[in-house]
Design a protein that fits this description.
single chain, about 450 residues, alpha/beta, Aspartate Aminotransferase, domain 1, 7-stranded mixed sheet, globular
Length: about 450
């Protein structure tokens, strides 16, 4: 270290070079800085971010206990792909998806197959690729064209499925939701499927509202279609959130591998799996539903290993966090945590329903997520974007946004209740919603609507 750098270290913290100047934005600095200086600049700039626990827009976990943080800190350098160097981490990954296969009622968990992913978006894309490849193999075996695959799903589907169709040349067939059909429920499904349909996506926890799509009802509609046409179309359950809620809170609901037509299920470990981002899982009910030619055998750092993923190097620490949470909570602990989240959601939705300005779209009795709209004719002076902005001024991020195609004239606001939103904190939120609604109702003239935009809500 130079004499100048030693002198810099003794200077008052915010008078040091680097902190006494504007940090570069688009160009690598010419010279190094003290680690304390670099850290302080990063800390200062990220201080402008919101408080993650007050972010009720995101499904992604924002709280874990101190022991989980220690597990993470001890393993953040582990590369999940390097199974030769980290065989125990690889074994723990296998344990986790086998546990999920059992949780989701796979007929034979040992005969299932699965993998961890960076998040549920990657998991969905892997499931979609398995659908497409199986369909291609079957079509080629019959000497038929394979150039026009399509995938059927709700218009309220998460954007990752639109990405899948775009990236992998699959036609998306979006079944519009409506006031009468708030989710994909099998209604008119025969109008959307044909011999080029690689599968149907059912969502356990629609992103826009948190509602479950009735998987058994969708499967029954596909059974009827097969009887009438011979088309045998599988289901993938996008259980990003609900796959870690339904087994604990709605154990009698048939949505999982109890339905033979369900070939694969995905979930987010970093949502209601209660792990920090980013971690996802995908499991197939049987190895036969994952085509062998999608699995690569790679030689890496002295070993040969199978890999099926869009990413290669990726962190192993989150997998260990998932195992920690499984061990820490067990079935009973998960049920307790998820029940408290749902009770808090019902507490909030019940309070919002009493305000008088709003109508609930749903109440949070599926996953602990619910949405509401401004009551028709209530006011011309403000809208939900104004309430969104008023709450943001108090630190809360409660997004307002338009519903999907065929309902785009309907704006809703949504709350996601996650582990870490205590009942006391929820009471503060409800009080703020009541206060800001009363403030907006007291306006004598309309609020401006220029430059309004939806908040992030996926």
């Amino acid at each position: 270290m130079s004499a100048q750098e030693i002198q810099d270290d003794r200077e008052p913290e915010f008078a040091r070079p680097g902190e006494a100047t504007v940090a570069p934005r688009t160009k690598l600095p010419q010279h190094e800085s003290l680690p304390e200086t670099a850290k302080q600049i990063v800390d200062d700039e990220t201080m402008l971010d919101g408080n993650s626990r007050l972010n009720l827009a995101t499904f992604v976990g924002t709280w874990m206990d101190d022991q989980a943080r220690q597990v993470y800190e001890a393993a953040f350098d582990k590369n999940m792909i390097d199974k030769d160097e980290y065989p125990q981490t690889a074994a723990i990954e296998d344990r986790c998806w086998h546990m999920l296969a059992d949780l989701w009622n796979a007929p034979d968990a040992e005969a299932s197959i699965g993998t961890s992913t960076i998040g549920s978006s990657e998991a969905c894309m892997l499931a979609g690729l398995a659908f497409k490849r199986r369909w291609q193999h079957a079509r080629r075996a019959e000497g038929k064209d394979v150039s026009k695959p399509n995938l059927v799903m709700s218009s309220a589907v998460q954007v990752c499925w639109e990405k899948f169709c775009n990236y992998f040349d699959v036609e998306p067939r979006l079944v519009p939701i409506s006031e009468d059909h708030k989710t994909l429920d099998g209604h008119d499904l025969q109008r959307y499927v044909d011999e080029n349909t690689i599968g149907v996506v059912a969502i356990m926890g629609v992103t826009y509202t948190g509602m479950y799509e009735p998987v058994a009802q969708i499967a029954k509609a596909l059974d009827d279609i097969q009887t009438a046409t011979g088309l045998d179309i599988p289901i993938h359950v996008d259980g990003a959130s609900g796959a870690m809620i339904a087994p604990f809170l709605q154990p009698d609901l048939e949505w999982d591998f109890r339905l033979e037509r369900v070939h694969s299920i995905s979930t987010s470990g970093h949502k209601y799996g209660l792990v920090y981002p980013g971690l996802g899982w995908v499991v197939w009910r049987d190895k036969k539903w994952l085509p062998d030619d999608l699995v690569f055998q790679v030689s890496y750092l002295g070993g040969s290993m199978p890999t099926f993923a869009l990413n290669f190097s990726r962190p192993g620490a989150q997998v260990l966090l998932q195992y920690y949470v499984f061990l820490r909570l067990g079935f009973d602990g998960f049920r307790t945590v998820q029940q408290e989240a749902q009770d808090t959601a019902l507490f909030l939705s019940g309070g919002i329903a009493k305000i008088g300005a709003f109508d609930l779209w749903n109440d949070g009795s599926d996953i602990p997520v619910f949405a509401w709209r401004l009551k028709a004719g209530h006011t011309q002076n403000w809208n939900l974007y104004h309430l969104q902005d008023r709450l943001r001024m108090k630190g809360w991020l409660v997004p307002a946004y338009p519903m999907p195609d065929d309902l785009t004239d309907l704006t809703v606001q949504r709350i996601v209740v996650r582990n870490g939103l205590s009942r006391d904190l929820a009471a503060e939120l409800l009080a703020d919603i009541e206060t800001e609604t009363a403030y907006l109702d007291g306006l004598e003239s309309p609020m401006p609507v220029e430059a309004q935009h939806p908040a992030f809500h996926h």
